[in-house]
Amino acid sequence: MRRAVVVGAGVGGLTTAIALRAIGWEVSIFERWPRVVAEGTAPGLRPDAQAALAGLGLGEQLRERTVPYRHAQIRTPDGRRLAGLPLERIERRAGAPVRMLSRVSLIEMLVRQVDPATISTGVEITDPAALRAGYDLVVGADGVRSAVRRAFFGAATRPRYAGIVAWRGVIQGFEPQDYGETWGRGQMFGMTPQAPGVTNWYAPVRTPEGVRESLDDLRARFAGWHDPIPRVLAAAEEDAVLRHEVYDLAPPLGSYVTGNVALIGDAAHAMTPALGQGACQALLDAVELAACLRTHPGDVAQALLSYDARRRPAAQRMVTASSWMTRLAGAGRLARPRDTLMRMLPI
């Protein structure tokens, strides 16, 4: 039996383990944290990512845990409507709506499909070369600061601060009249459904690297913005709010594979959160990697080249679109808003 090691037990790593096991591989997972971390708010799963999970037998669970996201607006800080997010267009073309799912729920759903005995936590990868020698396949799913990427792909591509701090939280028992995003100069505020009676909010704000703002500072940034934004932030509790500096990768990798090593998710193509596509792209990477290995069962190197050819162009297009959308939203205005938005949001 072919043996693979997956470094990282996030969305991409867990999905990779499930997909590889389904095609007959023996899989070990190494996670540097003391436990599998299930935290975060609500990624929006587009139809292609939903299909990827359904192909792993998780379609019914996905429908039970998610809520559809069908209508949303982009507004100015005073509440004036700029444009609609293209959710209806996505549903019309793909035949299914975007669905919102708590990241905690997604991780829990994936973990249940993995044999606990195959997950080793608290493991720091100090000798990646030993992994390459001991397994038929090494998958780096260890995030933007990937040890696997540094070891096998060199130091030319590295994390780059995107100039943004992303704040995120949820509110129980509150559903706004209108979901969507409000764009102001250098900052944006968004709200989406997460579950019945649960609203996900997020606020990417331009912040110098290393500057540590408080929740009160965030409230001050959005003081005077249209209702219910100030009320949402007033209800937020410090210990329940996530704050992360955002990094992407630069320059883009020339390949996501080398020998018997493959990168997936943020390790390969970390991107800004403007399109909310990080989790979706990791899911698509994982399923495509397994599909290529199934197509080339006796030739791992050829399978990985096929994976790279299929996934890298698509993922990099999403990285580019997300970067442009970050700049567009941060400008706080749109020229010909609907046409611009449609070009910037590929489906």
From TrEMBL:
SUPFAM superfamilies in the cross-refs: FAD/NAD(P)-binding domain (SSF51905)
Domain of life: Bacteria
Coiled-coil intervals: none
Pfam (any one): FAD_binding_3
The FAD-binding domain, residue ranges: 4-321
Keywords: Monooxygenase, Oxidoreductase
The protein's name in its UniProt record: 2-polyprenyl-6-methoxyphenol hydroxylase-like FAD-dependent oxidoreductase
